[in-house]
Design brief:
- The complex is a heterodimer of chains A (336) and B (288).
- Chain A is 76% helix and 0% strand.
- Chain A is mainly alpha-helical and 336 residues long.
- Chain B has one domain (2-284): P-loop containing nucleotide triphosphate hydrolases (Rossmann fold), CATH 3.40.50.300.
- In chain B, strands 6-7-8-3-9-10 form a 6-stranded mixed β-sheet, sandwiched between helices.
- In chain B, strand 9 (219-224) and strand 10 (227-233) form a beta hairpin.
- The longest helix of chain B has 18 residues, at 182-199.
- Helices cover 42% and strands 24% of the residues of chain B.
- By secondary structure, chain B is of the alpha/beta class.
- In chain B, helix 4 crosses helix 6.
- In chain B, 44% of the residues are buried.
- Classes of the chains: A mainly alpha (336), B alpha/beta (288).
- The interface between A and B is medium-sized, with 22 and 32 residues.
- The complex binds adenosine-5'-triphosphate and magnesium ion.
- Chain A: Keywords: Cell membrane, Membrane, Transmembrane, Transmembrane helix, Transport.
- Chain A: It is a multi-pass membrane protein.
Chain lengths: 336, 288
């Protein structure tokens, strides 16, 4: 199957998935109790007021009717208007998306660095106390979920030894001369390393909390996979050629051992993105997840709908990227 | 002068000895067969020389001298480099001995470039030359291929070319044909023999096929239970085997001129005799 065909097929399945998600979410959030309109109006509003507001947001129609109206809007790029802020959902969501993308990517990078380093060290020192220590550490890291790591980090580095920020995305005192909301990327492009440092010291704790469980999974799986690879004949042959153990591990074994890990990272990364919802809340980080919780509390139906669709879109995009990377790295799939 | 000398090598797994006072030498340019039944320790000797013993196996005593260098006396890193520069391996299974994620070319040239300091261009020419020598058509194309695109026979030819690339003075071939189709086996065997003769390389040839030994080797070491039973010239061995086990082994091997000749398995009495020898040896050396 050619690359083009594979991508087209993926786009089609993505569209179907997104439609399914849209339908389910649309109906679920409308049948759970809670009236957004009543929450918006001051106490003492008349039934008449409520009815008028309902009509304004189209909430007086049947749910299928509402869905069709919503779908029609979406096809024209209109995701409706947030009930609480009265701003277009699309621009609200897009303004918060960069913060969450940056946080997730930072967490992923941290997880890959820590996990990779642990796996390589464990392989290099296999059969020694070092490997045993790594295994135990992995076990602990895995048995505690990300939000508990968040609390631990807040206690350690926010309260006991306050060297990192534990709240917000950026210090309020900083003037932002940026034209996008990708602050972290833009600060690098504009060489504003003062701002970059402030951003990183805000992001480090939440992204580390997200990264720890993933790092442990990566370390465990990659080490296992390296261990199996290290017994293979081509690795032994490289040793007889005169290569030292570090070279043998990183150049001969690693490229083959990462493939299974990579697929898993893809799946786990989507979990990590899901984890941002609570972590962002915990660290008052102004991202999509934090906005999602506000939207749910306020029963801001169009906003919830928009955020969920966006998350679903991100998940499928991540899976697509993983598949393509896998194909690019594995010569047997490349021409197959 | 012998290029490889092993002196009284003892190795064990836990408390179980797997090599017992093994001594053997391979003269420059000589082909020495290493025969014995499965589990006799043939591969272990090759691995001890090439520094690829499994971690469970521990060398207890003895010396391995490769081209004047006492390998045991070297630091692990230096030992690897010395081995990489002076010796090479032709592995048993060509399907698993090439790295699936790298092109063939670099797998032939990497030792030349990384260990011996050749330029990439020189190493590339050398690889093409060698592939031509092992009768691989269109070497340039093959060097750009990935291993899975090539047949088992092709891959073994590539591994042979790769083993000869740095003109090592010693090559260890551990049953280099057993994983191949019967039709390909003969070609590969002939190729190894040709290459060995042309390059004047000493060859330690691990096999349990005496027919192969008679065709390829000049001298022979017979191994049982990690112990050398006989060390002899090939003509001598086939004419007058020097150990009862050798004689039984010879009787158990079908003559390749007459593959249907009846097989006499090694008699139990002979095995018992060898086992008694091993026991006596272990008692003398303090293993109970
Ligand atoms: N990884 C290992 N760990 C511990 N013991 C091993 C290991 N590999 C082999 N052995 C043991 O070492 C002994 C010698 O094995 P070796 O592989 O050298 O036999 P061989 O003569 O090459 O046999 P074959 O003809 O089957 O290849 C055997 O008793 C075997 O059980
Ligand atoms: Mg063997």
């Amino acid at each position: 199957m050619t690359l083009i065909r594979r991508i087209l097929l993926r786009l089609l399945t993505t569209a179907i998935t997104l439609f399914g998600v849209a339908v389910i979410v649309f109906f679920v959030i409308r049948v759970v109790p809670g009236n957004p309109v009543a929450m918006m109006l001051p106490p003492g509003a008349t039934d008449d007021d409520i009815a008028r507001l309902k009509a304004l947001y189209g909430l007086d129609k049947t749910i299928p009717e509402q869905f069709l109206i919503w779908l029609g809007g979406v096809l024209h790029g209109d995701f409706g208007t947030s009930i609480t802020t009265r701003q277009p959902v699309l621009s609200l969501v897009l303004s918060r998306l960069p913060a969450t993308i940056e946080l997730s990517i930072m967490a992923l990078v941290i997880a890959m660095i820590i996990g990779g380093a642990l796996a390589l060290t464990g392989t290099r020192k296999r059969g020694t106390k070092v490997e045993g220590t790594i295994d135990v550490t992995n076990g602990v890291a895995l048995s505690v979920p990300d939000f508990l790591w968040g609390l631990v980090l807040i206690l350690l580095f926010g309260v006991l030894w306050p060297i990192f920020h534990i709240s917000g995305r950026i210090s309020p005192s900083i003037d932002l001369p940026f034209s996008t909301n990708f602050y972290l990327f833009e600060s690098v492009l504009r060489l504003r390393f003062d701002i970059w440092a402030d951003l990183v010291s805000h992001m480090f704790m939440p992204s580390l909390a997200l990264a720890i469980p993933l790092a442990a999974i990566i370390a465990q799986l990659l080490k296992q996979s390296l261990k199996e690879t290290m017994h293979l004949d081509y690795v032994t042959l490289a040793r007889t050629k005169g290569y030292d153990e570090n070279h043998v591990i990183t150049r001969e074994a690693l490229p083959n051992a990462v493939l299974p890990t990579l697929t898993l990272i893809g799946v786990q990364f989507t979990f990590l993105i899901g984890g941002t919802v609570i972590i962002e809340r915990l660290f008052s980080y102004e991202g999509l997840g934090n906005m999602a919780i506000d939207a749910v509390i306020n029963r801001d139906l169009p906003l919830i709908q928009g955020i969920v669709i966006l998350f679903a879109l991100i998940f499928t995009a991540v899976n697509l990227v993983v598949d393509l990377t896998y194909a690019a790295l594995n010569p047997r799939l490349r021409n197959g | 002068m012998s290029f490889l000398t092993i002196e009284n090598l003892n190795a064990r797994v836990g408390t179980a000895p797997i090599l017992r006072d093994v001594s053997l030498s391979v003269e420059a340019g000589e082909v020495r067969g290493l025969v014995g039944e499965s589990g006799a320790g043939k591969s272990m000797i090759g691995k001890a020389v090439l520094g690829t013993l499994p971690t469970a196996v521990e060398i207890e005593s003895g010396r391995i001298v490769l081209d004047g260098e006492d390998l045991q006396a070297l630091k692990p890193r230096d030992r690897r480099r010395v081995i990489g520069a002076k010796a090479a391996l032709i592995p048993q299974d060509p399907l698993t001995a090439l790295n699936p994620s790298r092109r063939v070319g670099p797998q032939i040239t990497n030792r030349l470039v990384d260990i011996l300091g050749w330029t990439r261009a020189d190493a590339g020419h050398r690889a093409a030359e060698l592939l031509d020598e092992v009768s691989i058509p269109d070497p340039e194309r093959v060097m750009r291929a990935y291993p899975h695109e090539l047949s088992g026979g092709m891959r073994q030819r590539i591994l042979i070319a790769s083993a000869f690339a740095a003109e090592p003075k010693l090559i260890i071939a551990d049953e280099p044909t057993t994983a191949l189709d019967v039709t390909v086996q003969k070609q590969i065997l002939r190729l190894i023999r040709q290459m060995q003769a042309r390059h004047g390389t000493a060859l330690l040839f691990v096999t349990h096929d005496l027919g192969v030994v008679s065709k390829v080797c000049q001298s022979l070491t017979v191994l049982f239970g990690g112990m050398v039973l006989e060390d002899t010239r090939v003509e001598q061995f086939f004419a007058r085997p020097g150990h009862p086990y050798s004689a039984a082994l010879l009787a158990a091997t079908p003559k390749y001129t007459d593959p249907d000749a009846s097989l006499t398995p090694v008699p139990d009495a002979v095995i018992a005799g060898v086992e008694a020898e091993i026991e006596a040896h272990d008692r003398m050396h303090g293993h109970v």
